[in-house]
Specification:
single chain; 106 residues; mainly alpha; 434 Repressor (Amino-terminal Domain)
Length: 106
């Protein structure tokens, strides 16, 4: 089993959308265009572009596709999406969540 490396990010800093990482780092490193990546992934260019632009998230099915293409598996892509979504939800719901009492089992 491969050792997992966790990225360090300053507390409170917004996690990058995984589509931005795919667009800015991964596709250039693989030397493939968006059109070619969409073809290799078996999705429409529009679907991939929505992810690359941050308008759509990475679903488990897309994580499987991207993980296979990149050779790093789906888990990292889902964790990046989860971190991004959770960061935004925490900020959007901060007041609502603060008003919920915390109960502890005896």
């Amino acid at each position: 089993m491969a050792r997992e490396i966790k990225a360090k990010r300053p507390s409170g800093m917004q996690p990058s959308h995984p589509g931005a990482i795919l667009r800015d780092d991964v596709l250039p490193a693989l030397a493939i265009t968006t059109t070619e990546a969409a073809r290799l992934l078996g999705v429409s260019r529009q679907s991939l572009h929505a992810i690359l632009s941050g308008r759509s998230g990475i679903t488990p099915a897309m994580a499987l596709r991207i993980g296979k293409l990149c050779g790093n598996g789906p888990d990292i892509w889902l964790r990046m999406q989860q971190a991004h979504d959770l960061w935004h939800a925490q900020r959007k719901m901060a007041e609502e969540i603060a008003a919920i009492p915390t109960r502890r089992a005896a």
